[in-house]
Amino acid sequence: MSKIKMTTPLVEMDGDEMTRILWQMIKDELLSPFVELNTEYYDLGLEHRNETDDQVTVDAAEATKKYGVAVKCATITPNAARMTEYHLKEMWKSPNGTIRAMLDGTVFRAPIVVKGIEPCVKNWKKPITLARHAYGDVYKNTEMVIPGPGKVELVYTAADGTQQRELVHEFKGAGIAQGMHNLNSSIESFARSCFNYALDTQQDLWFATKDTISKKYDHTFKDIFAEIYENEYKEKFEAANITYFYTLIDDAVARVMKAEGGFIWACKNYDGDVMSDMVSSAFGSLAMMTSVLVSPQGYYEYEAAHGTVQRHYYKHLKGEETSTNSVATIFAWSGALRKRGEMDGNKELMDFADSLEAATIETIEGGKMTKDLALITSIENPTVLNSRDFILAIRKKLEEKLA
Length: 403
Ligand code: NAP
Ligand code: MG
Prior knowledge:
This protein is globular. The chain is built from 14 helices and 16 strands. Helix 1 packs parallel to helix 14 and helix 6 (184-201) packs parallel to helix 7 (217-240). It is α/β, with parallel strands linked by helices. 45% of the residues lie in helices and 21% in strands. The strands form four sheets. It has a ten-stranded mixed beta sheet, with helices on both faces. A two-stranded antiparallel sheet has the order 6-9. Strands 7-8 form a two-stranded antiparallel ribbon. It has helices at residues 17-31, 46-51, 55-67, 80-85, 95-103, 184-201, 217-240, 249-258, 269-282, 310-317, 327-344, 347-365, 371-374, 387-402; strands at 10-14, 39-43, 69-72, 106-111, 128-132, 142-146, 150-157, 163-171, 175-179, 204-209, 244-248, 263-267, 289-294, 300-304, 368-369, 383-384. Bound molecules: NADP nicotinamide-adenine-dinucleotide phosphate (NAP) and magnesium ion. Residues 273, 277 line the site of magnesium ion.
């Protein structure tokens, strides 16, 4: 069998620890034997980020703008312990944060649905994709502890020096206060990313805020979405036979629990943080979640939703056997290859991505899985495989499919 060719490179961002080990296995066993991989490689492993003063992360994000599609391995976000462990020059920022700031995107997370790993919510039949706005609100807040009686105000000083004031509260005793913000430009790009992703995946889009209570702040989110929808997307949505639906956040939560899935749920930053953990754990496991950053310019960066699985890596280093789930990382690759194929009109590459995903799902549905899934599956007597043997079992299925 001749290998599938790629006309345009894909940006490949390598990472850290156990996921770096899986990354190489996936390339060796599931990709290189079938595809003439054409990637522009960036090593985002912490050692190399440190050597390059984190320039490699910036270069990788720039390359993503150039080529349009990237696939990223999980990476360590340094903390004090990592400073000593890796002898770091600086506590480098989170690569995801750096890349997100440069691409200005929205993160879409969707569960990988497999028979035998059933969601706890019994009526969820199709995946629910969560789209989280990744800028501002409580994540960029300013807080104050109010020690005693006094007045708290919001003050806006315009460029010409004129001021506008709003009373927050006239305190009679001790309390707390908080100021936060967002930007129209960021909300607009969030909205466009969501509308584009809905069209791309042919799914309805839900959006919710608390605009009845927050009549200026949340209402601005609602208005910006409505305006962009009317002016730029309404006709496209109607042509694609999908809908845009706005409701209050508490109503959305109630409806989600009763829904059968198969839609995108756009959330403000905090709602997205909280609700994505609820949705992902209800669907089974973080290792069964795909994650893609979509920029308003249409750049795509695929990754797994979980981290570098440090605990398993230390076992691996001691020569002990690991049973780490590689599904999310495999789906990061298949997602990126499919998108590359779509952009280049390369049907063979898109078909390969479908086959790789099908082989992965069928392996699990056939009872072969890693330990994390074996603990939650409804399949009787599953075969628990180690990290490598699970990937080899997928390869076997994939070879059957491609034969
Ligand atoms: P983690 O890597 O997500 O792992 C936490 C625990 O979840 C693991 O110990 C394991 O549980 C389970 N788990 C996660 N992924 C799994 C998989 N694929 N297969 C089987 N089990 C899995 O989080 P962490 O250990 O807290 O963080 C490690 C590093 O990852 C940190 O340095 C953090 O900065 C980084 N991180 C990176 C990203 C990213 O790049 N996107 C995201 C989050 C965290 P058991 O130990 O019980 O088996
Ligand atoms: Mg969270």
